[in-house]
């Protein structure tokens, strides 16, 4: 397909017609690369409802909608993948064989630059604009025939003994352990966001839940119950007390790990690890085939992963002063961040420094602890 401006039409994601949503789903179903729930029209609509600059470029061929690029645009014409900073998977979702001219695509979108940081590896038309690729660990899920304990011993023999011992101790100390894969209580979602917000502040990370639009978008997505996107809140309880929680989206076959947090008073029971293991086992029983842990180096991801995908970050630009300025500003920042993250000798001291600062600010004790998820 040779794209022209007439082939591309721009829509608000939350205002897409049912027929266009069906076309988007059909394009996604044609390739396993697009099975991730972050690539669904439901996710785009959830972000778009709370972000005024959200749009979807729809590519047409012979009158049919064959490609979909959700993005956000600011008043200067700078574009970014929709939900950048939240979304762990980005792509122009298209039918097999569809290609596009990136500059014509940007012109039709009114963009001088388009930024991404979790682009799926398949996106050939964007390849030359990728400035770096990164591992995104995943877990291939297998359904066990027996109990959770039997599944855990078979899937993770190195973790099973210690994890089951901590679960038993948690049950003795606080009450019988109970796991709910799909908790529908919105109060529990607010508890999770409170825990996560405190974790961000404690570790001197940007507090996403201090931004009202993110809180509103997460609450919106929690209510979505569709085939290609369902917001799943999972909770580990000890007796009636919530211990750990996770919220993330699932499609028919992919479950995306997103926001995990736990009661900080119970950290010595390894609640974050218990949460991820319980989630993986339950998701497999629900028909999910892949648990996507998302880009980033974390010890628990190394323990759990069965393989890695590759995701790209970079900028697509067309000749424009704003594009040049944006690259000059964002490029060095990204480069410095990636250099630190790629080298343990730099990353670990930086991480400790952030955690020390957060601990001193919130408690005055300087006491550190490692948060999973």
From TrEMBL:
EC supergroup of this enzyme: transferase
GO MF: acyltransferase activity
BioF2-like acetyltransferase domain ranges (all copies): 161-301
SUPFAM superfamilies, alphabetized: Acyl-CoA N-acyltransferases (Nat)
Pfam families named in the record: Acetyltransf_6
Keyword Transferase appears in the UniProt entry: yes
Entry's EC annotation: 2.3.1.-
Tree of life domain: Bacteria
UniProt xrefs under InterPro entries: Acyl_CoA_acyltransferase, BioF2-like_GNAT_dom
Keywords: Acyltransferase, Transferase
Protein name: GNAT family N-acetyltransferase
